[in-house]
Amino acid sequence: MQLTDNIAALRNLSALVDFANLINSSLDLSFTLNNILFTCFGKFQTTKGVILLAGSGGVLELKAAKGFSNQALEEFPSVKIDEYDSDNALAEFKSKNRLNFCRDFNSSNGLKGYILLGERLSKKEYTPEDYDFLNTILNIGATAIDNSLIVTELKELNRELDAKVNQLSSLFDLSKEFSGILKVEMIGKLLLYSIIGQLMVSKYAVITCRQGAFTLLENKFPPDKLNPVLSGTDLLAITSVLKKEEINKDLESFAELGVDLIVPMQIKGNTKGLIMLGQRLAGQAYSKSDIEYIASVGSLAIISIENALLFQETLEKQKLEKDLETARNIQKNLLPKSVPKLNSFEIAAFNNSARQVGGDYYDLVPLSKEELLFAIGDVSGKGVPAALLMANVQAFLKSICKQKMPLNLASNFINDLVSENTTNGSFITFFWGVLNDATRELTYVNAGHNPPLLIRNNEIKKLRTGGMILGVMATVIPYNSETLQLEKGDLLICFTDGITEAMDPDFKEFSDEKLEEMALNMNGGNPSDILNKIMEEVKIFTKGAEQSDDITLIVIKVN
Amino acid sequence: MADFNVSARGVGSVNVLELKGYLDAHTAPELEKAFNKLIDDKSFNVVVNFKDLNYISSAGLGVFMAYVETMRENKGDIKFSNMKENVFNIFDLLGFPVLYEFYKDETEALEKFKVQ
Q1: Which residues of chain B does A169 touch, with a Cβ-Cβ cutoff of 8 Å?
Q2: Which of A192, A198, A220 is most worth mutating to test chain B (most B CB atoms within 10 A of its CB)?
Q3: What are the sequence ranges of the domains in chain A?
Q4: What angle do CA A304, A307, A308 make, to 5 degrees?
């Protein structure tokens, strides 16, 4: 009897020595756990066993199992380690699989987990010696498990670290690359590749929001479905990362498209674009670190995108400005290049547009040896539309001059032509007159223009005879003309409202009164001097405020 | 500037892309061009031979992600072969082995297409 006992003790001992040697030779957790199970199976003649270890959040994880079908393992419930004794699902799992021989096992830092073993093939109960043996095994095993757990954890940390290093090197790579690219499409592509490559995603969209509109730089969601969803959403209001749960809750239409993550791309806290990603192909959720990576790449990209867009805009603006400069030259060429020399009249003229091109117009056209036509006009509005209409009027005027028509009839005619060509209520205030160099006669028609000032003997006569402004409607009431006999010393000042309405920094106007007062105080001097004096005065008055309207001035002196 | 080169050759019904040098954000467009050409030619069976590729960045990986679906939707695939260890480590780190097939050498990858 004693001999049998001794043999049994010896067998136990040698099994223990074998076991101790074996499991301390490896740092692989599953190797260690499998060996604990196999040793128990061999010793107790049992065929079923599992080892549960506390994982993240204290939830027991099935780390090793032997003798179970996959289906049986799937039924293992989720149990927290501190609910081990009280959990019904676990109790049911245990009883269903007849896992009656259970032991907790501990390491230096507390409870680690449990080992559950099934019934013995012999159907015999486990004896107190069996308990002792199991305890010994678990004591030896605990250190090995601890070690392998630490190694596993280190491996995991190492991998995470590698992933982080990889992300950082991607970021570095991209920051170098982005800074050199000025094509938005290219930036969008690289941004995307860096994200989908890093996170394994195949459904994605990169959207930029600018001036109330969005642009899809890249998209793999169905466009016919995505576009209405985007149009119907205030994209700029998305100012923080939205994860799947939030999208499901608040942005149902996005969730339906399969959007799992939305990361805004921001500059100074303002959303300028969005990165939308679908499910990751390997099924994992987006981790905090993944989202940080996406956000970092996104901010790098959006700054580059913004720069690229600004660069393009600047280029376009430069091109537009070049075009306008060309237009300005064309327009300058439409105005008289020189002032005709006459015996009885001396003429000076000036024109300056507030913008590159303007709507003011003046002209000096010799009609015959004796006769000179002069005209001044102001097209409503400013800039390109006004300039186009001004060019139109200039063309009409040049053709009408060839017709040798009396000025009043010519006025009817030019109004009809202008009326046909104006839309949206644009109009032209217009004054024209014909000077006769032989007789010193002036015949004029004023179509709603600021009345030119005729100064004779310190008195002003305003030249008002004419009719309606040009371009409002076809001529119904014919225009009247007036003919005046001019005398030596007479001064005629024609101007546009750019002079009288020139404003100082306090928005006070130069005014008709001031111009008239100046006109009366012009004692002699030739027309260019007078013109320069008026312009000088306007300049002093505005105190450097920006010229807000086109300015045209014609000064005629009778010799 | 790091060099990158991609060359394509046909082996039966499969196209082999040989990559050389450094595949990063800067050189990714080259690879993209090669894939676009394959799609234009309706060649959806692709083996990428990494024999001479020394480095790959996320942007480089992204190109494979961007094209694999198109290939698979057209009953083709992108398979990888002859990868150096440092390059494979990056693919492995980001979980690519779940979705792509990796082979030690090109012939093995080509064989797989024949079987299918």
Answers
A1: 57
A2: A198
A3: 12-153, 180-311, 335-558
A4: 85
